Amino acid sequence: PVLYKPQTQSSPQSNKQRTEQSTNTKLKREQSKPAMASSSFSATATISSSHHHHQSQSLLFNKPFIHNSFIFSKKSPSLRQPLKLRASASVAPVDQTAAALPLPLPDFDFKDYMLTKADRVNAALDQSIPLAHPIKIHEAMRYSLLAGGKRVRPVLCLAACEMVGGDESLALPMACATEMIHTMSLIHDDLPCMDNDDLRRGLPTNHKKYGEDTAILAGDALLSFSFEHVAVRTPKTVSPDRVVRAIAELGSAVGSAGLVAGQIVDIASEGDEDVTLEIHKTARLLEAAVVCGAILGGADDESVERARRYSRCVGLLFQVVDDILDVTKSSEELGKTAGKDLASDKATYPKLLGLEGARRFAAELVDRANGELAGFDPAKAAPLYHFANYIATRQN
């Protein structure tokens, strides 16, 4: 706030003029800043002692704070330019799971939104793959697909569609497709030849339940069916060129330049001390979910690219927080085996940046993600603002 203390000899009229002048000066300062959907948006972050601040100290930066400590002589992970970190008056302690604390977001019932959208996605997924012949393969597909989870990718897809003015029905088949592909990746990641995991979402992994051969085939079937589902079930009110564009986006996210690339780099980086953040595992599927939602919702090219940049920040944030949780939470808290990345010496963000550095990087990503939503209707973009904060502060 702009504080004004009148001089003792000033008249009431001059006081009013000075107050108005001070207010106008403040407004000009605010207008000269980069446009944001709401001037109250900011990101909270831990500030290390290298910046000559105690961790418990309350700090309010009136100007953007350029923070590059996450580099540590390594390359920036796909974010080439310095990130502007706006710290709020509260600084998170270093033992927090993520660096970001709840932001001053629009008045919005995010929990209810998540539950409502997840219920609709779950119902659509249940209907999409009935228990048909051959029973075993469809049972294995449904076992992992309907095993729960937050449905982050499909809900993001629906939120992006609605943010650009579309109805959720336009993107619901695509939302289901992203979850089918995500489930496929989990089934395959858990295989003995990959991460060799026995627990997923609190249940035995697919290959433990049905055997490795069936688990591989279940993943393959989910992958192929996801594209069929989008092509057949997307409402006819969506133009064919937008459907094709969305399918191409989804395909690029899964292939050798997307999900598969991330997995192969993940395997190759085990025990590699020279790995850089530049080649660390990415979150292309989450990006595709947001971008496809915007495309199917009728967004213009500029809006699609803003949604893409937002999703890249959030996708990377999701991975950073995942890495932090892997080394700070128990298997019971996570619903999957904790410490697997540490045991296999994978190139995680806590390994490359240190735990505190990973938390600071998470805060920077929240700030960048929020900035990319500028220009959209704040009410329609509210779910995506809340998503970034939710992912940064999740505990499992």
From TrEMBL:
Residues 1-49 are annotated as: Disordered. Residues 1-25 have a biased composition (Polar residues). InterPro entries: Isoprenoid_synthase_dom_sf, Polyprenyl_synt, Polyprenyl_synt_CS, Prenyl_diphosphate_synthase. Residues 38-49 have a biased composition (Low complexity). The keyword Metal-binding applies. Pathway: Isoprenoid biosynthesis; geranyl diphosphate biosynthesis; geranyl diphosphate from dimethylallyl diphosphate and isopentenyl diphosphate: step 1/1; Isoprenoid biosynthesis; farnesyl diphosphate biosynthesis; farnesyl diphosphate from geranyl diphosphate and isopentenyl diphosphate: step 1/1; Isoprenoid biosynthesis; geranylgeranyl diphosphate biosynthesis; geranylgeranyl diphosphate from farnesyl diphosphate and isopentenyl diphosphate: step 1/1. One of its GO terms (biological process) is carotenoid biosynthetic process. Keywords: Carotenoid biosynthesis, Isoprene biosynthesis, Magnesium, Metal-binding, Transferase. Its cofactor is Mg(2+). GO terms for molecular function: metal ion binding; prenyltransferase activity. Belongs to the FPP/GGPP synthase family. This is Geranylgeranyl diphosphate synthase. It comes from Linum tenue. The lineage of its organism: Eukaryota, Viridiplantae, Streptophyta, Embryophyta, Tracheophyta.
